[in-house]
Automatic annotation (TrEMBL):
Superkingdom to which the source organism belongs: Bacteria
Record field: transmembrane: 70-92, 112-137, 143-162, 183-200
Lineage: Bacteria, Pseudomonadati, Pseudomonadota, Betaproteobacteria, Burkholderiales
Organism: Piscinibacter sakaiensis (Ideonella sakaiensis)
Primary localisation category: membrane
UniProt name for this protein: Threonine efflux protein
Amino acid sequence: MDLLAAFAAALLIGLSIAAPVGPIGLLTIQRSLEHGPRAGLATGLGAAAADAVYGALGAYGVSGLVRVLVAARVPLALFGAGFLLWMAWGLVRAPAAGRVAPAAPARNGWQYFAGTFVLTLSNPATIVSFIAIFGALAGRGALASPGLLVLGVFAGSALWWLALSSAVGRLRERFDARWRRRVDLASAGVLAGFALWQLAGLL
């Protein structure tokens, strides 16, 4: 497999992992509506960076660390569920804005990035997916350039979050305070549902 094809395959992997609707997607939509596309993009890029970390573990075959993460599935799942519930509670308690909120300051962007980075890393099932995917690519000779694959995963994931946050950000002025409040409450409910589903998986 040549380098361009390997990068394209990794980019598609990043897109396919980021695109399904989940807690990160909901947070990206909610923050893009509330604080603008930059806030949504910072949220998504945190997940993209975590995807790249897990992609690196799969591509470089860091088997010892992989075993540690898999063995720590229960505490990581508990942490992730607690973090989701905390964010859901924050959305429920947030006051409804009377007008479109100003763009989030840069420091909040870094907070959004760090929060979703940690949240994505707390899901060890992600690394299992990367191990399976990169195992398949190894059979085609793609792992001769693991760094390029990691870059492709990050680029694909980041491309999805850029498209999503930009699209939602363009629509934010069409949502009045009542509709933004509904989005907040719906996002809180779904985040809490994901948290409970993650806890139920431990049983």
